Structure formats: structure tokens, C-alpha cells
């Protein structure tokens, strides 16, 4: 048996992976207190590894059995048994925060959907997919970030603790919808359509049009419709932030505002998501940080 990385080295590895793969979320985590952000990095790495199984360079060799084994690996983590270097930080994180295994299992179920599905008929079907691959991240993150202590008053000495799980899921779904809208072209080139076929039909736009990358009035109307729906999920998420622990409101606002800017960028590109990738320039990201701080303080 090989010796595994030390706890410090393991968290450092997680930090590096997060910094390299997720510029936006990493920026958000840099605004968090140390103990929480280390845990978020560990969770990020687990999520990234899960996603890579069906989305990464080895995806072609991934089968149901691969995901079964990954689920066993997950059980081992929750039983306190790390198997590789980055697991060490994850096991430590599981010991420090009240994380539930179900969202992790649900995310694997979401990756399974990617194995056998490349179309969604209705928004309800897509929403389930979005919950599984991204809403779950909201639940995991909230367990780490925590909620503000409830206010104890003489007339309400035992206030109930509210956990904004629905709002956390909403932010995950909003992010995933944003990701889907940004990557329509890239996904089409892999034969995948995440936009509900019912929505395409509603605007008289066909799969064939999509594969050709046609940007016309029908497409622009369809995209406006989808962007509006994503923004509703962001709005729901916003309402949950003031319930969260004070020390992470700024990072969460930042993550929300930064990711939502991708939608503005798509609009700026006049909904052409086929020939360019909506990209938020660094200076625009930086300008969003004080805005997020202000919102964290006053909302
Ligand atoms: C700032 C913060 C707390 C971030 C959480 C970081 C974290 C653990 C992220 C994991 C992301 C991940 C690798 C998920 C696997 C599935 C996947 C790829 C989902 C998509 C992410 C987009 O990433 P990216 O742009 O890199 O995509 P590409 O692979 O590059 O195409 C998702 C769109 C999902 C991301 C979802 C979230 C970060 C959930 C956010 C929700 C909260 C932090 C809850 C906040 C609480 C309330 C009450 C609002
Ligand atoms: N070192 C890497 N090796 C392999 N894939 C990578 C690497 N870095 C990023 N990627 C992948 O390349 C794609 C594009 O990454 P890009 O840097 O544009 O976005 P990002 O860093 O995730 O920022 P954002 O959080 O704003 O999406 C992503 O799907 C990401 O998973
Ligand atoms: Mn990315």
C-alpha cells in the first residue's frame, strides 16, 4: 500500500485544481474564510472528477460500471477511507461539516443521464438533470457555508433554523442553464441538445437549424425566452443569501453575479452562441466584486 498525501498537501492539491479549472468559482472562494474555502475546494475536486468521467478526455471509456465503481468510491469516502491523494482532504471535510451523501449520489445519477440521453423533451426533464448535476452542488456548498444564527427574542425563544436549500438548488440550476446556453454550439458539435425540444417547437426552430447554427428571429426569441427563465432562478437564489452565514454572503453574491454576467455577454453577442463563446472579460469580473460586496452588506 502506498502512503497518501498529508492533509496539508491534499488541500493544496484541491486548491490548485480549483484555481486551474474554475476561474469564476475560485475567485468566489478566495473571498471566503479559510476553513470553509478549503472544504469547498475539496468538494469542487470531487465534483470535477465526477463530471470528467462523462465530460473529460476519458469519457469514451466510461460506462455504467465506471459510475458504479465511482459510487463505491463515494461510499468509502463517507466511511472515512481515502483511496488517493485528493480523497484525504475530502474525508477531512466530511468530518468537519454536516454533509449528506444523497446530493453526491444524485450528482452521479445526473452523470448517468449524460451516458444514455442527448435530448430533453420538456423543461421538467431538463430541470431534473440540472438539479442532479448542479443543484446538488448548492446543497453541498450550503452544508459547508452554514446559516446565520437565528435571532432569539423573549417572544420567540426557540426559533426554528431555516436552511435555504431550495434557493441553493435554484442557484445551481441557474448556473447550469447559463452553462447550457453558453455551450449550445459546442454541445451540438457533439450531437447533444440540452434545450428542451418543446421549446424549440414553440419558436418553430428545428434541430436541423440548430445543427446548422442558424441565428435568426426564431432563434433570438427562443434564446430570450431561455435567458429569462435562467434569470428567474437567479432571482430565487438571491432571496436565500441573507439567510446564509454572514461571512460567506459576499463570495456567494460574487459567484452569482459573475456567473450571471455570462447571460449579459450572450445578449451582447446577439445570441450567437455558435461561432463564439460568451466570455466575461477580467475587468468586468473585477467590477462585479464591489457590487457583490454592497449587496452582501445591504440585502
Ligand atoms: C463559490 C462557490 C460556493 C462555489 C461552489 C464550488 C463548487 C463545489 C463547484 C462544483 C462545480 C462542478 C465541477 C460541478 C460538476 C458538474 C458541473 C460541471 C456543473 C457546472 C458548473 C459550471 O462549471 P464550469 O463553468 O466550469 O463548467 P464547464 O465544465 O467548464 O463547462 C455548473 C454550472 C454548476 C455549478 C453550480 C454551483 C456552483 C452551485 C452554486 C450554489 C451555491 C454556492 C449555493 C448558494 C446558496 C444559496 C442559498 C443561494
Ligand atoms: N488544465 C485543464 N485541462 C483540461 N481541461 C481544462 C483545463 N482547464 C480548463 N479546462 C476546461 O476547459 C473548459 C474551458 O475553461 P475556461 O478556462 O474557459 O473556463 P473556466 O476556467 O471554467 O472559467 P469559468 O469558471 O468562467 O467557466 C472548461 O470546460 C474546463 O473544464
Ligand atoms: Mn469551466
Report a brief summary of the structure:
With 299 residues, the chain is an all-alpha fold.
**Molecules bound to protein:** the ligand CC(C)=CCC/C(C)=C/CC/C(C)=C/CC/C(C)=C/[C@@H]1[C@@H](COP(=O)(O)OP(=O)(O)O)[C@]1(C)CC/C=C(\C)CC/C=C(\C)CCC=C(C)C, adenosine-5'-triphosphate, manganese (II) ion
Strand content: under 5%
Regarding CATH, which class of the largest domain?
A: Mainly Alpha
Order of helices and strands: HHHHHHHHHHHHHH
**How many DSSP-defined strands?**
0
Class by SSE composition: mainly alpha
Share of residues in helices: 55-70%
Uncertain residue ranges: none
- Average pLDDT, rounded to a whole number, is 96
Most strands sheet:
none
Bulk shape: globular
How far apart are the termini?
A: 52 Å
How much is the radius of gyration in Å? Answer: 20 Å
Number of helices: 14
The CATH topology of the largest domain? Farnesyl Diphosphate Synthase
User: Domains counted in the coordinates: how many?
Assistant: 2
The CATH architecture category of the largest domain equals Orthogonal Bundle
Characterize the quaternary organization of these chains: single chain
CATH superfamily (homologous) name of the largest domain: Farnesyl Diphosphate Synthase
Family: Belongs to the phytoene/squalene synthase family.
InterPro entries: Isoprenoid_synthase_dom_sf, PhytoSynCyanob, Squ/phyt_synthse, Squalene/phytoene_synthase_CS, Trans_IPPS_bact-type, Trans_IPPS_HH
Pathway: Carotenoid biosynthesis
Protein name: 15-cis-phytoene synthase
